[in-house]
Specification:
Structural class of chain A: alpha+beta
Strand order of the largest sheet of chain A: 1-10-3-8-6-5
Shape of chain A: globular
Helix content of chain A: 10-25%
Oligomer: homodimer
Largest sheet of chain A: 6 strands, antiparallel
Distance between the termini of chain A: 9 Å
Largest interface: A-B, 34 and 34 residues
Radius of gyration of chain A: 15 Å
Chain lengths: ~200, ~200
């Protein structure tokens, strides 16, 4: 059976339920789209994938194939099992939000990953009391030896993907990042859809 | 008027209310004690100091004198105005918690920074729905150019301090980290008190 390919619409979010042992594949369909990613325990969504606990777990600024991301209760939740994207996945930066776009000069509404997360969860009847720091799949935040960070462009070729194994029953949530001011989604300022499968 | 020096007891937490413009000084009394630090808006404690938003704000892996840490609503909350400690203050690692000590082989109870945070806030009648990633004052987590992290020993001399300016009315919370297994509080495994002033 071929897994259904689900669309994460441009500038929007999408969440799905996943069973322990299933594989989640996130596809960089057009090659320049960041996908903010969160995971929550299906049993209790206040247990969520934690970037700060994951760094303490694998002692690196970024995970690579073979590494497990863990929850705020220190349990593995997602293991990165395959990556054809070039391997730039940020775990340092907050999800974009309305205030962030305000600082960048946007007046009024702008789509943002924080709202996309909560809207996507709501479609599954799930609410969470905070916005965890996301795993920013395909997002390229280079660091230097002296600790300087910068907003890089994606390195993921079109059609490349990352694949995770679910280590518990969980809810995964994605946002096709609507950032069109910084070059995070490429220098064209165009934001696109992405896709995922669960199998 | 000399500001009162308040004790953060060894292995315990302490919180205090601070007005906009006041200075918070955290003293490494004995030189080897990490102080996990959090800040919350007095008006709405679900607005809290965010390490992931602060990295996006100052584009570095760690703040230095002159940098402002910002909230999860992207507003400056604490500005580092003076630092005699050597400057190692981690913003990458989660607060220690009971599960963390379980992974390190501890059976049953162990004091931990997460519980200390919530107990300290409770003394002020404040509850928050999650445990934000802390600013680990005096905690030395070196990184390498390839992104490897390690548990370093403190570099702060006894009596050294950091001083922050409060950028809004806020609640500050501290935990004298009870980590006695990793060398985060020095190789002796002894955990000590620390002190702070607000003026």
């Amino acid at each position: 059976m071929t897994a259904e390919t689900v669309t994460i619409p441009a500038r929007r979010g999408k969440a799905a339920r996943v069973r322990k042992g299933q594989r989640i594949t996130i596809i960089s369909t057009h090659g320049t789209q960041v996908v903010d990613t969160w995971a929550f325990s299906a049993e209790d969504p206040t247990e969520w994938m934690s970037m700060e606990a994951s760094r303490a777990w694998f002692l690196k600024l970024a995970g690579a194939v073979g590494d497990s991301y863990v929850t705020n209760r220190r349990r593995p939740i997602l293991t990165l099992v395959e990556d054809t994207s070039g391997g730039a996945h940020d775990m340092l930066m907050a999800a974009c939000d309305l205030q962030r776009y305000g600082l960048l000069g946007v007046k009024g509404h702008h789509d943002n990953c924080r709202d996309n997360l909560h809207a996507a969860l709501k479609e599954l009847g799930v609410t969470v009391p905070a916005t965890p720091s996301p795993l920013n799949v395909f997002m390229n935040i280079p660091w230097t030896a002296d600790g300087t960070l910068s907003w890089g462009e994606p390195v993921s070729p079109p059609g490349s993907y990352v694949r995770f194994r679910a280590e518990m029953d969980l809810i995964v949530a994605f946002s096709a990042c609507p950032q069109d001011i910084l070059p995070i989604n490429g220098r064209t300022g165009s934001t696109t859809e992405a896709h995922f499968t669960i199998e």
